[in-house]
Amino acid sequence: MEIAEIAVDGYERVARCRDEGTGLHALIAVHDTTLGPALGGMRMWPYASEDEALFDVLRLSKGMTYKSAVAETGLGGGKAVIIADPRQDKSEALFEAMGRFIDDFEGKYITAEDMNIGISDLESVRESTRWVTGLSREAGSSGNPSPYTALGCVIGLRAVLEEACGSESFEGKKVVIQGAGAVGGRLAVMLKEKGAEVVICDINAERVAQLCGEHGFEHVDDDEHLDVECDIYSPCARGAGIDDQTVPRLRCQAVAGAANNQCLEPRHAESLRQRGILYAPDFVLNAGGIINVSVELLEGGYDEAQALERIEGIYGNLKRVFEISQGERIPTNEAAFRLAEERLAAAP
User: Fold this and answer.
1) Looking at the structure, do residues 125 and 151 belong to the same domain, yes or no?
2) Which of the residues are catalytic?
3) Do 341 and 280 share a structural domain?
4) Which of 89, 144, 196, 286 has a CA-to-CA distance to 186 between 20 and 30 Å?
């Protein structure tokens, strides 16, 4: 196994791992540990290049710093990415090698579940390091974070609806969900139960057909979903989808979803504001999963009741972001960054 450091200004540690025996090619980025060890998920994706993977892991780890700061988890920000195809490259040996890579950070980075990674994968990682969260409840851990991410989004969307539509009621509101995976699919079900009209799209046609068959959702092709008129557009797949090409196409009152780093660049949040579209900063809205996982690191171990109580705080955090945005006439992403920086600065 070969571990090499990558120097990146503003990050505490970024490293690359190559392991010929297992085929592992991975990156870990620790952005900031001012508030505590860096907790962030591990994802597997067939990136076109290491540069693309590095771009992703740096954005994601920085986002985790701000997410944990606003959510007051007592943790810092980090992330891990494995450059591989989850459909064919997974193996116990590969994940055990990933565990050895994580262990090289000596507790400064703690991993968890993220895109294309499940509890069984994390159990293999756990064979080589103790710095793993989000394992099964039977193992005394907090389990799959996806339901809690979805729940946190529902709680936060109440604040979004109040701000954008004048009422927190979901009844009759039209929501377009892009990405119907573990979080997006569950979010769709929860919103429909609350009376929303839900339209889903996903590149996985089988997943769309399954959800529509089970729950009666409407669906739209992925390349046409931006043109659907709706109250809320909810990106729940990969990030960076809000850009110069997509902003003019949006026909919604608010953008609020579970995907990380939804804006390709910070200026795109201002582009939304100029169009009169409310943007719910993703790292504030989608914090439910990390809040749930963080509770297992508290003294006494995981307590679901405590996790649910903390997740309710997402509503108040978004209300505060919108208040700062309006009071200072700045985009909501800048307001969220300001709130995060205030909480980082207040650390003992």
Assistant:
1) no
2) 79
3) yes
4) 89
